[in-house]
Amino acid sequence: MSNPRPVHSLDGVTIGVIEARKGKAITVEKGESLKLINTHGKQVIDFSAFALDPDLRTLPAETMNFLSMQHTRSGNMRLAPKAGSKLFSNLRKPMFVMEEDSSPGIHDTLVPACDPERYRNLGVQGYHASCAENLHTALEEHGYPFPGDFTPEPLNLWMNVPVRDGGALAFVEPVSQGGDYVVLKAEEHCLVVCSACPQDITAVNGYSQKPSDCHFEILQAQRDIPSFKLFENDRLLAFLDIQPLSLGHALVIPKHHGAKLTDIPDESLAEILPVAKKVAIATNAENYNILQNNGRIAHQVVDHVHFHMIPKPNEAEGLGIEWPAKKTDMDKLKALFNEVKAKM
Q1: CA dihedral of residues 337, 338, 340, 343 (deg, nearest 10)
Q2: What's this model's pTM, rounded to 2 decimal places?
Q3: How are strands ordered across the β-sheet holding 33-38?
Q4: Do 48 and 238 form a contact (C-beta atoms < 8 A)?
Q5: Which of 61, 85, 108, 266 has a CA positioned 20 to 30 A from the CA of residue 242?
């Protein structure tokens, strides 16, 4: 059985991607918080959860304890949860608390997960990905079989389903914006499945009808976080790396979530280099590298923009770099120059 635990971490925070149209299984321990980020703004996440046996960390064989929207509505006396609301299971046990919600708070608990029949009803011929299939696939891949004819109703984060006069429902574009997030604190050990809804026919994922990636972070219980914070304000955070390349190796990160530099607004980047400069001075780094990677083949491992300040005290410690410079074709370079300059 594989462990549905993401592998990338940054300062005690585990980070991962929920790919567009796909599902992701994530284990969340009691006391940890799961931060789900609407990276591009209009993507709906179908959120499902199953209580794990506290000793075996497996789904109980006899009594299934899963997140239930009807019990969540009843427990909160609301159509949708808000910051401070608890998310209840089918056994009426609290599974999560919604600690934070940076979005306008529009979520849905009424609509079931999309499934193959839903897309056939919408006129789709042939295969179409669905949240129901994503749920069952994610569970099966990690050794947690679940009855194929039953899909619990999910919490549809950021889905906008207004209730009209007379009780009529509608699917309209989400009001969430890029970078909006919710933080859900686990009240018990859970296996979570998040599906970046593949709906591309209605306005569920916006009027552009283009599903997109989302990101998540697992925030450890406060007592477990190994953190050596150097500086923090409303826009950024600087801290020492707990796996340094050299003494004084630090990171400076924007609080606005984005996987690559081009995903971060200019105002969230304005103080990055000044703070990196302060860190270099404070650590007495005479020689150092400022490093920022974008994309897997460019050596990025964590899907959140971060800048390294890496002291280079000697040849053996710090960052090692090879620079395979190539001969330049001046005509091609001039053509590239004109093309790039025109876009600046």
Answers
A1: 160
A2: 0.68
A3: 8-10, 13-18, 214-219, 33-38, 180-186, 94-101, 86-88
A4: no
A5: 266
